[in-house]
Known about the structure:
Elements: H1 19-45, H2 71-95, H3 99-122
Helix pairs in contact: 1-2, 1-3, 2-3
Amino acid sequence: MSSWRESNLHEPEQRDPRRWIGRGIALWSFVALLLLLNAQRRDSVRCDQDCYGTYRTYEAGHPWPNYEDAWQRDAQNILMTIAFLTALAGSVFLLAHHRRRAVILTIASVVLTVAFVAWVQLSPPVGSD
């Protein structure tokens, strides 16, 4: 084993084989941001002229996407907001060199996002009766 005096100080640095973890966490944070922005855009449109109670006479018994004030829309937005904030917290923990916590928070964000996407995809379309 050589000492630091015998070293030429020009040895190539070893790359961390786990560097892809950090890149994946950062990429997921960006994807979660895009999904959150899409959810906000989707919420601003809601059902427009197909809504009961705004442009059309209020009628009970239709699927929830046909109502402007449906609580499900707000719950979907809150779910995606929590997913994004969890991904952001994972990125912060990664910057603070707490890789295990960052990975756990990123996995939680992915699970929340999958739940959001599944809920949105399984929701009845606007205007359906």
